[in-house]
Specification:
This protein has 162 residues and is mainly α. Helices cover 57% and strands 5% of the residues. Helix 3 packs antiparallel against helix 5 and helix 5 packs antiparallel against helix 6. The protein is elongated and about 95 Å long.
C-alpha cells in the first residue's frame, strides 16, 4: 500500500500543474512521482560562523594593500632579479643597486617591497593620527600617537620621494 501523499506536496504539485502547459507528459512528471514519493524530513542545522575580529580584518586588508602596492603580481609574472648590480667605472668593483635605472616600467623585487613598506608605514601613521583624536585616551597617550603618526607619515613621504 502506497503512503498517503502529504497535503503540502499535493498543493505544491497542483500549483505547478496550474501552469499553462499543453504537454500531458509534463503534468505526469510533476504529479506522478509525488503520488507515492515524499520528500525526506531532514534535520539539518545551519553552520554557525563567527565573524572575525576587526583587527583581523584590518590586518588582512593591510597585507593585501602591501602586496598590491609593492608590485607582487608584477614580481610573480615578470620574475625580476631581487637586487641589481653595477660596475664602478673608477675602481672596477661591483656594487649593489636597489633602484632600476633606465626602465620606467621595471623594478627590482627589493625596490617594490621597500616602497610598498613605506606606503604601508604612511597608512599606519594616518591610523595613529586618527587614534590620537580619541577623547577617551589620556593626554600622554594622545601625544604619543600623534608624534608616532606624524613621524610615520613624514618618513614615508620623504623615503618615497627618491
Amino acid at each position: 500500500m502506497a503512503p498517503k501523499p502529504d497535503p503540502k506536496t499535493l498543493a505544491a504539485a497542483s500549483a505547478i500543474s496550474d501552469q499553462s502547459s499543453i504537454d500531458p507528459i509534463f503534468h505526469l512528471l510533476l504529479i506522478l512521482p509525488f503520488s507515492f514519493l515524499r520528500p525526506p524530513r531532514l534535520r539539518l542545522k545551519l553552520p554557525s560562523f563567527t565573524l572575525p575580529s576587526s583587527m583581523t580584518v584590518y590586518s588582512l586588508i593591510l597585507l593585501t594593500y602591501f602586496l598590491v602596492v609593492s608590485g607582487f603580481v608584477y614580481d610573480v609574472i615578470v620574475e625580476p632579479p631581487g637586487i641589481g648590480s653595477i660596475q664602478d667605472p673608477v675602481t672596477g668593483a661591483v656594487r649593489p643597486v636597489v633602484f632600476m635605472s633606465g626602465r620606467v616600467n621595471g623594478q627590482y623585487i627589493i625596490e617594490g617591497l621597500s616602497s610598498g613598506f613605506m606606503f604601508v608605514l604612511g597608512g599606519i601613521g594616518i591610523v595613529m593620527l586618527d587614534l590620537a583624536l580619541d577623547k577617551n585616551r589620556a593626554k600622554s597617550v594622545k601625544v604619543s600617537y600623534a608624534t608616532a603618526g606624524i613621524s610615520s607619515v613624514a618618513l614615508a613621504y620623504i623615503m618615497n620621494q627618491s
